[in-house]
Amino acid sequence: MSGHADSVAAADGLEPEDGGSRDRATLIGLAVVLLAAAGICALLGSHFLLGALRLAAGILAGLGLGAVLLALLPARLAVRPRVLVAGATALATMLVLTVPAVIATRVAPLADQAVLSIPALGEGDAVHSLPAPDSPVLVRRADGSAQVLIGQVPHSIEATPHDVLALSADGRRLVRATGASTEVILLDPTASTADGSLPSRSFEGTPIALDGDRLVQRTCSDGLCRNSGYDLGGSEEPLWVVSAPTETRGADPVGLEVAAVPGEAPGLLDAARATGVMPSVPLSFDPSQGWVQLDPGSGIPVGRILAGDEEECRIAATAEAVAAQDPLQASPLVITACSAEDGALTATAFRDGEVLWESAASPVGTWDVRIDHGRVLASGTEAGGDAPGEIIATEQRAAWTAPGGEGVAQAAAFTARIGLDGTAMVVSNESGQLLAYELADGANTWTLPLSTSEGEVRGTLSAGTAVVLDGVRRERPLEPRSTRLLRVIDVATGEVTSTDLVAAEVSAMRAVGGGRALVTVGDETLLLGA
User: Fold this and answer.
1) How many helices (H) and strands (E) does the chain have?
2) 398 φψ region: left (φ > 0), alpha (ψ -120 to 50), beta (else)
3) Fewer Cβ close by (within 10 Å): the C or N end of the chain?
4) What is the DSSP letter of 227?
């Protein structure tokens, strides 16, 4: 009779009672094991932040729930429907426990936050900008081609590798100098011509300076040289023409380090080529007198001689470290850094050709100098020593001091230096902080926390902007281990203009003015920030 009952049960799609009980007990035991393993994986995954264990916990939990459901479904149901229901439930549980967690920790592509995208910067490509909001950015490729980024649109500029491209100090124009002629391009897309090109004017000769609408040009013919002034908003005829010395010596680049004693005098366009910014103050060297500042409105020398013809001096025109309170006193400064025979340096600042301040002589040594923001920063070694160091001359004191002076000397040890210009130094310290110090007196102008004190902190500083990449403290097991925190910071205020998580490899970072940065990821370079 028992065999007959089993046959009837099997014919009705039911399992024998004793066999069904054994199967349910086995499934429940398996479910307990799976759920216990899921819990262990979840605990270990959270503790050790292991994404594989976190995913395994979701998968095991789904399988365990499926096994429980398979055991609890009525035995009178056919095997296939029971397996399908349990399998579907297990799969749904796995997806619910894993997919949302993966999505929640996914790092969005950096391109989603970018203002614009251009082809990736390569070796030999240069980026030039101005420390002003919404100012244009000049991207010069190694092959000579160029783009100007205006707002959210890149504009291509035709140029050869021999041409010099430089932005005006106010960011309104771009100068293209070929040596024989000068083209001044107005960087105003709303004034573009019918074919979409930017409006421009051309002049014979080599540009010396561009101050607002006043362009100062130099031309030579038949052994005679002349300086001419033009009003870019007016007639094509020059406002003035005066004779000029045949000497073609030019000023030094602002913000770039050069040897204190020049081995070879720079050419007229060397500074503009190196910095990508056209000088706003016309400076002229006369072998019989020395350096003088010219009035762009008349071409007449202003004030006294800035440096004698026999002196070994570096000279450049820069903005002041701090904006003048009186708009009438906001004109750029001319800074000289002159070397004595023993290598001691003396820095002098001029406004309109008159001495504003002068430093004492620096220690004797071998120095390189950088003129930036109305100050002179020297790096090198003192005579009799072999340890390299840095000293700075500013408007605040006569003596040369270490950058930041006692204020920086008493700070916590630095772990990385992000960058330095004429006004500030941005560093990280052992306490896990990102800080900015004023170079003259060492005042701590702002402090930001680093996301983690572990891992490398790197970045760059230029045009009043710092871009910093540091590690991210992982708090969830599925967060990518390659994630880094990218911040763009206005150095003057400490305002963070852009904060982004980056999982992809960042191959290059270039800080540009106005709290922005060009960041290269893969085959594209992205403009981030305000």
Assistant:
1) 6, 35
2) alpha
3) N
4) E
Q: Please state the three-class secondary structure of 317-381 as a single string.
A: EECCCCCCCCHHHCCCEEEEEEECCCCCEEEEEEECCEEEEECCCCCCEEEEEEEECCEEEEEEE
Number of residues in the chain: 530
Contact by Cβ (8 Å): 228, 247: no
CA 105 and chain centroid, separation: 26
Q: Is 44 exposed, middle or buried (0-12, 13-18, 19+ CB in 10 A)?
A: middle
Q: Is 179 left (phi over 0), alpha (psi -120 to 50) or beta?
A: left
Cα torsion for 427, 431, 433, 435, to the nearest 10°?
-40
The total of other beta-carbon atoms located within 10 Å of residue 126's CB is 17
Rounded Cα gap, residues 330 and 327, in angstroms: 5
Please tell me the predicted confidence (pLDDT) of residue 14.
Answer: 43
**Rounded-to-integer distance, Cα 233 and Cα 418, Å:** 42
Q: At what angle do helices 17-48 and 51-72 cross, to 10 degrees?
A: 160
Residue type, 506: V
What sections of 369-508 are H helices per DSSP?
Answer: 405-409
Q: 230 falls in which pLDDT band (50, 70, 90)? A: very high
Q: How many CB atoms lie within 10 A of CB 482?
A: 11
CA-CA distances (angstroms) from residue 407 to 15, 379, 397, 402, 421? 86, 19, 15, 10, 17
Contact in structure between 262 and 242 (CB atoms under 8 Å): no
Q: What pLDDT digit, counting tens, does each position of 139-155 carry?
A: 999 999 999 999 888 99
Q: Given the structure tokens 């290059």, which residue do they identify?
A: 508
Tokens of 153: 């649109």
Considering the entire predicted model, what is its pTM?
A: 0.83
Answer yes or no: are the C-beta atoms of 229 and 212 closer than 8 Å. Answer: no
17: helix, coil or strand?
Answer: helix
**Rounded distance, CA 439 to CA 492, Å?**
12
Q: Which of 134, 34, 153 is nearest to 94 (CA)?
A: 34
